[in-house]
Structure formats: structure tokens, C-alpha cells
Amino acid sequence: MVEQRKKRRNIIFLIVLFALAAFDLFAWQEIFVGYPTSAAARAYFLDVGQGDSELVAFSDGVTMMTDAGPTDAVLGSLEKALPGKRYIDLALITHPQLDHFGGYNFILDHYDVGAFLYNGRDDQGVAEWTALKQKIAAKHIPLITLAAGDSVHYGNSEVDILSPNAEFRESAELNDTGLVEMVKTPDFRALFTADIGFNIEDWLIVNIKDLRADILKVPHHGSKYASGDAFLRIVDPSVAVIEVGAKNTYGQPGAATLARFASSTHAQIFRTDENGTVEIYADHGKLEVVRGK
């Protein structure tokens, strides 16, 4: 089983490298020339309204985007994070719900993408999902399925997929199927949690050896059904970001969730509805946060 997992990781790694290298030589030249290799990695939590969208710019300028919110609101936030750039190396869709993938339909009208990564699940009842898959296919962009145990490595950074396992991937609850990522850079560790709830958190506690993260993308927009005390104590983030829309109808973030953060962590909490896009990077070992990017 271990050997099979290692082989699968190698296959994913090679597919991603091939997709990126073969995509556009000019785009790669722009990446390597346009960014200084000494730049610190940066994580952006994009203000997209009621939805999720995260962007990591690694130290050499390679970019990986996770989710894109529900609408074209992502475009303005992305332009501010990557001014003048029109190429995203990797675009990941945690799960096929509109508030996580919808913005990619608009991104593909303005940006080139090296490869898409997702959990293999479909939601055929949503027209925007069908349209997105058609656009990806029409542009001949590789669409790669990932699951727990897979990793994407690049240079001195890696992204480990912690969930879903085979059982969760087939769940009738789409939130259970969301890709959970541990992003590891020389500057910080960031845990991106999609819309997972208590059940996935409990599974991660039992099955993942090291959940510690400097930065936590708060699960499910701060829902009262996520961010359990035990999970928060183990992750022990210094900074937590809630991606949520102003005056949303879901009552997010929940008062009970905020109380658990206060009692179980020492994290500074930022919210996209109050702070706009949140940018985080490390400076001499200390996390710096820029609000309203």
C-alpha cells in the first residue's frame, strides 16, 4: 500500500510537471524572469463575497490557486494580488459547489492556467459546473484528480492532500469530499480546509500525524458545524482567516465558532467581509498580515 501511494505521488508529480512545462514556454520565462527568487512565499485569501478563494505565490513566483468564489468578483481581487500577470500555474477546485468553483469560469476568460486539480466528483445538475469543465477541455488544460495521500512538490515547497479518503470522496454530502491541503513552504505552513465539518476534522486528528499550521483557512466560512475545540488546539494557528460574505444569510461566522477560537487558540482572526483580501507572508520568522489588499 505504501509503495502504491508513493508511485501515485510520483505519477501526480510528473503529470503536473509535464502540464506546466509543456503549456507555454513564454509563460514560464515570464515567471522566472518576472519574480526574484529570493522573494518570500505569500498567501492571499481573496475577497470574493460569500465563497472561498486562496492564492499561494511561492518564493520563485509559481502560483497555486485554490477555489475562485461564486462569481466574477474574484477578478478584481486576483488582479491586485498578481498585478499584470495572466498566468496561474495550478488551479485547484476543492469540491463542485458554486461558491468554490464559479469564479473559474470568468478567470479562464482572462488568464491561462497550467493545470486544474480536483477531487474527481461532478455536480451535473449545476450549469456553471458543466460550463467550466467544457472550458477546461476546450482549452486543453489537464484536469487531474487528487485524493488523500497525494502531494504536489515544487522546489523547496509542497502541497500535501490530507482528505478526502476513498470513503469521504463518495459521500452524499459534497462538503465531505472537499480537498484539504497542507501547504508547506520555508516561510510558513498553511492548512486549507474547504467546507469540512466536525466529522472530517475528527478523522484528520486520528489519521494525520502533524496538523500544526501557522495559518488556518477556517473551515466552511466559520460555520457553527466546524472548527471543533480539539481540532483547533492541534492545528494551533497563529493566524486564522474566515472567508465569508458581508451580511450573508447563513449567520456565518457563527458565534459559537468564534468562541471556540477564543478559548482554544491564540490566533489572530481576520475576515474577508471586514478586512477585504488578506495577504500573509513571513518577515524574519514573523508572520505579517496586510488587510484590504
Strand element count: 15
Number of domains: 1
Spatial order of the strands forming the largest sheet? 6-5-4-3-2-1-14-15
By DSSP (H or I, 4+ residues per run), the number of helices equals 11
CA distance, first residue to last residue: 45 Å
Describe how the helices and strands are arranged.
Blueprint: H1 2-23, H2 25-34, E1 42-45, E2 54-57, E3 63-66, H3 73-81, E4 87-92, H4 98-101, H5 104-107, E5 112-118, H6 127-138, E6 143-145, E7 151-154, E8 157-163, H7 166-169, E9 180-184, E10 189-192, H8 198-207, E11 215-217, H9 229-235, E12 239-242, H10 255-264, E13 268-271, H11 272-275, E14 278-283, E15 286-291
Parallel strand pairs: 3-4, 4-5, 5-6, 10-11, 11-12, 12-13
Antiparallel strand pairs: 1-2, 1-14, 2-3, 7-8, 8-9, 9-10, 14-15
Helix pairs in contact: 9-10
How does this model look, in words?
The protein has 293 residues and is of the alpha/beta class. It has a single domain (2-277), classed as Metallo-beta-lactamase, Chain A, CATH 3.60.15.10. The chain is 33% helix and 24% strand. The chain has 11 helices and 15 strands. An 8-stranded mixed β-sheet has the order 6-5-4-3-2-1-14-15, with helices on one face. β7 and β8 (157-163) form a beta hairpin. The longest helix has 22 residues, at 2-23. The model is unreliable at 1-11 and 17-38 (pLDDT under 50).
